[in-house]
Every structure is written in C-alpha cells, then in structure tokens.
Specification:
This is Lysophospholipase L1-like esterase. By secondary structure, this protein is α+β, with helices and mostly antiparallel strands. The protein has 5 domains: about 35-135, Sandwich (Immunoglobulin-like); about 195-215 and about 235-240, no CATH class; about 245-485, Jelly Rolls (Sandwich), CATH 2.60.120.200; about 500-695, 3-Layer(aba) Sandwich (Rossmann fold), CATH 3.40.50.1110; about 705-800, Jelly Rolls (Sandwich), CATH 2.60.120.640. Residues about 1-30, about 205-235 and about 240-260 have low confidence and may be disordered.
Length: about 800
Amino acid sequence: MSLRQGGWTLAGILLAIPGMLTLLTAPAWSQVVTTEVTDTIYRANGTPAGGSVLISWPAFTTSSGQAVATGSTSATLSLSGLLDIRLTPNAGASPIGTYYTAVYHLDDGSVSREYWVVPVSQAPVHISAVRSTVLPTSVAMQTVSKSYVDTAIAAAVAGAPLDSSNPYVLKSGASMSGPLTLAGDPTTPSQAASKNYVDVNIATAVQFPVFKASGASHAQGAVPDPGATAGTTRFLREDGMWTVPAGGVSSSGSTVPGSTLTPGATADYSFTQATGTVVTDATGNGNDGTLLSGTHAPVWVRNGLSFTSTNPYQGVTLPATLNSTMTFEFAVYVNPFPATNGLAQSNQYPVFLTSSLGSSGINLLHAGPVPGAYMPGIFAGGMVRLTSSQMFSGFHVLTYVLGTSSGSPDHVYIDGIEYPYSTQSFSFGLQSGGNYFLGGGGVSPYAQSGTLGTMYRARFFSTALTPAQILSDSLALTNEVAARGAAVVPQQVSSNSPVLHIVGDSISCSWNGSQCNDAYSWSSQLTLTNQPSYTRTNWGIYGATIQGIVGSEANRVARRCSTNAGQAIALVDAGINDLGNATPAQTFQYLTGEIQTLKEAGCRVFVGTMLSDGGNSSVSGTPTMDVQKNAYDALILQQAKSAGADGILDFAANPLLGADGANTNSNFQPDHTHPSATGQQLMAAAASNALNYFFGYNEINPHTVTALPYSMTAGDGVISLAGVAGAGNLTLPDCTGQSGATYRINNPQSAFAVKVTPLNANQLINGIAFGSPVTVPSNGTLTLRDVPNPRTVSGCHWEM
C-alpha cells in the first residue's frame, strides 16, 4: 500500500466529520476489575524455581455480573522465582465450580497442575490464598458411557490396554524395551539377580588365589577366557581385566566384556601395573615403554599413570617401532586449569606425545591459545599442522589420525566426534627417526612441557582408523576406564553449607606484585545482610582469562555448584587478560559461556565489571585498555542478565575504580592494573551492595519502616511506611555496585507526605540539586532506578 504525503482537503474534512462525531458519542468501555496474584515459587530444597506457569479458564460470569470469555495466558517466573500476574476474580462466579487451571512447567523438567479461586482484593494475594483444596467437579466427577466402562474392564482383565501399548510385563511372558529395576538382591537360586549383584560377586571372586598373581607375567588361571579366539591365551587378573602374557596375541587387547575395540593395535598400554619402570604392551608385540628416571618418572596410581609435573618434565620412552604409527588413541584425564595459591601450574606446551626430534618430529598437543583452554593440535616438521577449535578438560578419549597429503589431511577426534579446525594439514612420515615419549621427554622446545593429568589407556595403530571405528573405540575405552572405578564424567562435590565461589584472575586473588594474598581480597571483606554465612573459596588465578576458565570450568567450580543446605553462588570477575588481545564482543562471548556453564550446574551467577587499566590492547587499532573497558562493561550491563546472570557487581560504578585514568590514583598499585588494599575495599563495598540488593527486601517481603528519619541500605529494595505516623525524611542508599536496581517507597499514610534525599551530591535524583528533596505523597508510591553514569567518568545517579 502506498501513502500520499500532503494536507487534508476541505472535502476530506467534511467527509470525516460524521465519523468523528460517532467516535465522540460512543459509550465508554467498562474495565474488568482484576486481582494481583504474586508469590515466590520455591523447590523443595529451598531454591527459587524457574520456568513458566500456563493459566487457562472456562467462560464465566463474575460475582459482579461481568462476562469473561474462555481463554488462557502465561507468566514467566523471574530469576528469583517470583510469579506476578493479574486475573479476574472467579470467587462466587457462575457457573458454580469455576476454576483457573494453573500448570507449572519448571526448568528442572517437572510439570504440575493446580486449581485457583481468585478473590476480589485490592491488595496482592499469595498463591496460598487462591489455591483450591477441592478438586473441580469437571475433573473429579466426569460421567462415562457403558461402552467406556466395558472397554476399561476388558483391558484390565486382559492385563494390557486394548490398543496393545502394554506398559506391563505379563506373567505369561513378554518382551521389554527398557531396563528392569529389581528392588533387592536374590535370596534363593530361582530369583533374578541385578547387574550390581553380579558385579559385586565377580569383583569378590577375582580376588581368590586361583586366578594367580598380577603383574607383567601371568600363569595359567582357573577361569577360561570366554572372549579369546582360537589359538590365543588370555588370563584374568585380580583387577578384573583380561591380559595377554608376553608373546601372546589378543583380538581386543586388555578390556572389559562387551567392548568393541578395533583389533590390530601395534601397541596397547593399559597402565595397570601399579608399580615398576616398565609400561607393558598388552598386544604381545613387545613394544613396552620405559618410565624416565628419578623426578622425570610419572607416578603410578590405582587406575593409571599420573603425570604431575612439567618442570621437571615427566614422561615414558616409547620404542622406535612406533614411529610409523598413523592412529593414536589416548584415554586420559586432563587436569582443569591447575593452580596453587593463585599461580597456574606451569606447562609451556600441554602435550600428550612428544618427539625426540623436537619440533621437526611429530608432537601431539592439547595446547590452546591461553592457559586452561585446552584444544587438540599437531605440531610437526617445524610448523603447526592441525588446530581444533574445540576446548576440553577432564576425562576424554582423544584420537589423532595422521594424514598423508592435502587431500587426506590430519584429523583429531574428541570422544569420537570431529570438530571444526582453524588449521589442517598433514603430518605422516615426519617422524623420520628417534622415538616418541608419552608426556615430556626434555627435548626443546618441549623441555618444560607435557601432560598434567592421568593416562588410563594409550593405543597405537599403523593404519588410519575409520570414523566409525574411532567412535566405537571411544565408547569402549570410556566404559573400560569407568569399570576400573575412575570418574569419566564430572563428579559433583556437594557442600553441607551455603558456598560462595570467587572465579577470576589476579584481581580476584588480590595480587600484591609477587603473590596472591586472599586475606586482602575484596571477596574476603564482604559485608552481607539477609544472607547465610557462606563457605568461601577464592579460585582466582594470576594471568587467567575467561576463555581459559570456561574451557576448564565443567571440571572445576561447576562441580561444586550443589549444596545440601542453602545456595551455591559464583561471583565471576575476569576479562582484563582477554581484552589484551581480544575484542570486547569476543570476551563477552567467553563470559556468556562461563555464565551458562555455572548456571547449568546449579550456581547463582553474578558477574563483575572491569576496572580502569593503564595498558593498551593488541587488537586492531591498539585501543587503550580503558576504551576496551568501557565497551566491555557496556555489554555486561546491557546483556549479562539476558545471558543468564542473576546479577551484576558493578565495581566500575565507583569513579575511583572505573573512570578513565582512575588507574593512576592511590587505589591502584604502581602497575596501574591491580587495586591496592584500599581499592580492594572499594570493590568489596560495591559487591556487597549488589548482593544485599538481590537478596534484600522486595514486593513480597517489604521493609516496614517504623520511624523517620531513616537511612536506607542497599537491601531496602521495597520500603513500606505503614509503620510511620507523620512526615519525615528518607535518605537513599549508596547506588554504587547495584546498577539497574529499582527501589520502591510506598507511603500509605492518608495525610502525610515523606521527603526523599540522595546520599550525597554525586548521586542526585533526576539531576535535582542536592538539598532539594523529592516527595512521596500521601497514599502514593515513588519508584527510583539506580543508573550508572557513562564509563568515562563513572559514578551513578537516580532516576524517577
């Protein structure tokens, strides 16, 4: 449709007059009265629920005679579990027995239904006041036909629905599509046994002397090998594994029943010797490995071989017969971003396998762009041959397949899955001499490099395995390692008290120029209200980036996001080290990943804004770090909550910390990056304000003031003056830290107004001069929003 620009013509005006008169004389529509239903929804463990509530209703007529049509609506629970919705009262409505049907769809996957009767009320009502204890007759007393009853009886007699979708196992026998769960262990020979019962008894049986001794060599045992092929000899060890003695051959190596490992390995190390200097090759090919000596030797652990250091390096010498390997499989646990007292454990180039030829040979790495961000890669022939874009940590099966040409390049798989590459070339044939080392071998440039973690299995093939074989092997190796009792997925570590995790870099760990000193950190100086006593852990690491933190987080802090009492809260304050060579948008993307990892694990997450910094970034245009800070903080303030954060710790709202150039004042150390002791105290005040506001008074639980004057605190999100008789003055709280917060002051007094003034002249209300208060009128409400000033100057103010 096109529009013509121009004025009204006289004819047009005359033609429009009858329509205008019709509008002017039209009757006014009456407004249906509604009642506000508001409440906080909790789960049984005391944590606020998330999700949505779908509400539907039939047509009814209110007690006042207003007709309401059939309909439905929905409401989303806030991050604090708050439900707030207005509904037309159906108490006393006709027809009799009219209910609202409320269906809860919570974010833990649960669905529940209840029925509401909403009264007429000018004040908000809680769900307990509307929840009906009587089941609607439309649900409880439905009439049915004779045919329906006959069909139901016939199905009951037959033991199955007549449509054959039988959910039961018949006594006469039937097939099942899922597992059968037994309530207990068998007590007579004819009773069925659970897998656990069988596993426990097998584990007990294999300890008997009839199975002979464990070790590199095994004598004939009393139990035959049900999986061995004709002409092979495997014997059962006390640890429940089938092992081939030296000189023997096995189709699947050392594994557990039911695995489908690809046969034909040239070497297979299960790392189950538990002692000695030899890593036994289970294939019978004699390709045993030898631990390096002294401090360079990895450490035997119960289920594998642990590499605990890269300086000094630790490794296993492998025979030169493996130089022609084309496929490498590693079942390994990579320690997540290891650190001690705020200092990351040194590992110059994280690497699973190194060459005695150094960089000219083939080296299989898991070195990412920053510490903690582990990504598989290959460095061979003096150059990067392969770089995967996928980060990982914890237990995984890594498979490297060497390519022979540009048309058949290198590949790497994580748990049988191949991810995109940023670099992909070919490496086969470049290990032209020397030998390989598992871990480090002390050869430059990997003299202070290696693996920090535990090797559970390493297999070598002279051919390229197919993707299908790699996926099958990954599953089999994972199952085999799990059968040893090793954790192959992150294990939750529950706390018996509320916990507070501090996630960040050297600012969080309170770097003093030479070391971290948590005693002076901002998180150790929090002053919290309306909250429990937390068990606090400072995870700050000097030099840490958000990219590196999120790469390891599933196996680090996220494991500790559950408690048996109270909440688990994560305060994330990082980004300055990312912004040195990444854009604000890239850094915020990493932050989003961190937020979502912690949220999915069960933590409430609050993120901090970046402080002033005196350096320059290496990104395009080499902007100052303060320019980077301003853009990054803007993304946090505008989008962090949409990304899943529960709240924001706006450290930079304090101009002594966040204004451009603030890094030159006494609240920073001489490096113009790290806050001084007084700077850490200012950060603590801002974080306390933000947390106290989030967990403070609200619409459901307002703070009733009983006397004026009164100075509000950060936790006074909603004030009620119902306890006051007379005029007086309220002083607003410090607005530093809880940027975006909304404060509401309700004055139900019928005859007295109350004055409101800001804390100081730097935190004005709508720009009104300090000393000129605003008024909350009688029977009125005043709403004020905490608004941060532009980052260049920092600070905050109030807007009505």
